[in-house]
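Notes from hallway chat w/ T.B., transcribed later so I don't forget. T.B. wanted the structure written out for a chain they're using in a teaching module, and asked if we could keep both sequence and structure tokens in one place. Agreed to drop them here.
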Amino acid sequence: MAEGGVVQDEMSDNVPGSQSLDILMLECPICLEQLRHPKSLPCLHSFCKECLASYIVNESSGKMASASSFSCPVCRRDTEPLNQSEDKQRWAEQFPTNNLAVEMIQHLQNTSMLIMCKPCEKKGNMNIPAKFWCEQTKYYFCESCKVGHHDLFHDDCEPEHITQENKSATIRRKMSATGCGKHKEKLEYYCEDHQILGCHKCIIVDHRKCEAVTSADDFRDKIQTTKIEDLLGELRKCVNSMEILIKDVEEQLQSMTEDQVTALESLIDLRTKINERFDVLQKELTDKLTASFKEEKENLDISRRKCERLMFAMQKTLTSSQDTDLKEDTVGTINLFQRSQAEVESCKALIQELEKSSRSTSVRHEYNPDILTLDTKTSLTLGKILVHQQRRKLPNTAALSERQLKMTRKININLQTDANDCAVNGVVLLSGGRIVVGDKANKKVKLFTENTDFQCELELCNRPCDLCRIDDNTVAVMLVTLKIICVVNVGDSTLTVKSNIKIQNVTENCLGVTYNNNTFVVGTLTSLYSVPQNGDEATMLHNIESKCLHLASDKVNGRVFASIHTSDPDAVAVIRLSDETHTDVLKVGVVEGTTGIDVDREGNVYVCGFNSHNVIQMSGDGTNVRELLTSSYGIERPRAISVCEDKVVITNKSTKQQNFVYLFQLV
């Protein structure tokens, strides 16, 4: 209910142009809602008090605590509060309330209501709209009551029309004269220091120390009309610039939207093409795998048939030799002898033929496992099919004592990145001529080829000692003081850690290691232990009189050989573990201070004599022993040894030779 008349609902879009302008003027630039408790900055931009307070706090959060100003959210003009020492959360309260905005908001809230004529209302006519407002009487009048009632008694005042345009203009005109936001007083003064209008109370309280304070009229005269017009002209140019910028931003948004659609379509198309490409790659790799297998299978089938035919013939000869009647037959005996002699020669010839042509072939698919990690930067690829071929180990018709070592390579393993000279306490020779060395001095595992090419290195967190072969692509590295077995994947040119197995309930440093029947056997200073792959507690197998630096596994017979490092006369040098029993197979004698040890696929054991400067070869039971390598070869203090087929690699701890490993061929 308005004073002087009844208010009823009315459609708010009677004058849409004016109301849209008013709504735009009363919108907070920060929250884009109608102003609430509007505060005006010196630049005359108004904001909700809460929005302005939050903005000031956020604006100053990245600045120094002593910051004394902030920038207007709209025009970016630097603005200072009247009291800079007050908490920044209360700076917004220091700025004047925009009373013009308050009045206009109240007006807009009433423009949707129809105001009734007060005299008509008293006569009982409740639905007569008012068209005039009398400030003196505080009454609303319709046009008839204005002439017949108001003008008869109040000819000294002129009521105002109450249309929306008229009302908004009236409010703005009234507020321009009495719009002090703090004191509700007339704005009569202007502070040029702060560039703000104020009433006489504002000047006395807030601007008494300012140097340039004039009356509002004087300042109005100071800014001549031409200057205002020039400024308005600049403002129009700025409006045009903003329109151009807004249009440019809209075009950019449109372009980005189109680009997004295009990019999404491109992604889908690329995914389809990648799938097609991967299909092709998969087929190529599958065809290569199939062809490699087929070719080798055909070669092996041919070799098998030759061997089978000769074997059947020799078996028939052996069967014939048991015929008692044949022994009484002179001609038959001579024929048996000749046939046996021919078949033996044929066997030797076939073995020689196969030694020249036959290759041990392994075919596998290798890829970088990092491609399966979501946050990896590794290029996406299906990997490659690797075919490793080397001469196949064939039965040797010569006696064990007839085979000798012939040096073929001397490989320098010291790298530019090494901080120290190398100390190689472990080595493994894999198929394809891959040589893995454990460099204790530099805490590394390194990969070389038998052609002396360095492939890669893997830095470790502890000193490595012994190394052992798990399979043709995996080795185990013993980390001495951490008591950890580090399992490493070996590619053609890569070394990656697969797992770390912590050895439980063992307090001594762990030195030697081998892998046998899915379990590790570990040597320490005083004992031999069985260590499960899953990291469960270790089980002690046997106490030893001196430290075990190296172990080796006879995978054919399921036995483990331990090298005991001692030079005491008649002390045990090599122990064989089998079925939870142990056997002393070699005592100190031909070798002293045993270190490296390995077993070939025929069960022959190779042992390094660190103090005797030699390498021996012996049968698995220790009954047949011979020196395979002596100091005359120039190898001093051999430390580690690895045998693969008919190749042997040896390291040593001689000061002059510690940066090299030596590759030999059994001939």
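Follow-up for T.B.: The radius of gyration is 51 Å. Might be a good example for the class.
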